[in-house]
From TrEMBL:
InterPro entries: Cyt_c/b562, Cyt_c_II, Cyt_c_prime_subgr. The keyword Transcription regulation does not apply. It comes from Rhodanobacter terrae. This is Cytochrome C. The lineage of its organism: Bacteria, Pseudomonadati, Pseudomonadota, Gammaproteobacteria, Lysobacterales. PROSITE patterns: CYTCII.
Length: 158
């Protein structure tokens, strides 16, 4: 053993060296534990990011809801501004009707009770379009069943 260099003698004797200074065994185990914890944290953060991306892979349900909210909001603004003529409200009512028919394909595989509420919403939107409200009280009356259908769904599934 006398002919071995100092670094190799320490390794042969069970000590750990980081050139040119020796490291105690407890420092090595602390360093390994720190690296394991750091690896776990990085792994958890990466998993969270991947799960977020996978959760956002189908934007259609959210898009349908955003478009419906936009048109419902425009109709509410028209009522507040007392501009409820049929010519300005009809496009928004038609859009609500069209979007209500897109709920079933957007939420394919969802709870069947959701589709019953979606059908109720579609019937209410059809009735609102057929009513062709020409003033604000008529528009309010036509939108009341639509709002109730939206509210019942959002209470249960939001």
């Amino acid at each position: 053993m006398a002919f071995m260099p100092r670094i190799l003698r320490g390794v042969a004797a069970g000590a750990c060296y980081a050139w040119p200074f020796p490291i105690a065994n407890h420092e090595v185990s602390m360093r390994a534990a720190l690296l394991i914890v750091l690896g776990l944290v990085i792994g958890i953060l990466g998993t969270v990011q991947v799960m977020n991306v996978l959760g956002e892979r189908n934007p259609l349900p959210k898009a349908v809801m955003h478009v419906m909210a936009y048109h419902a909001g425009e109709l509410k603004h028209a009522m507040k501004a007392q501009r409820c003529d049929a010519q300005s409200t009809r496009p928004h009512l038609l859009a609500l009707q069209a979007m209500s028919s897109d709920i079933r394909p957007a939420f394919a595989g969802a709870d069947p009770a959701l589709f019953q509420i979606a059908d109720k919403l579609h019937r209410a939107a059809d009735a609102a379009v057929q009513a062709a409200p020409a003033d604000c009280p008529a528009l309010d009356a036509a939108l009341k069943p639509v709002g109730e259908a939206c509210q019942s769904c959002h209470q249960q599934y939001r």
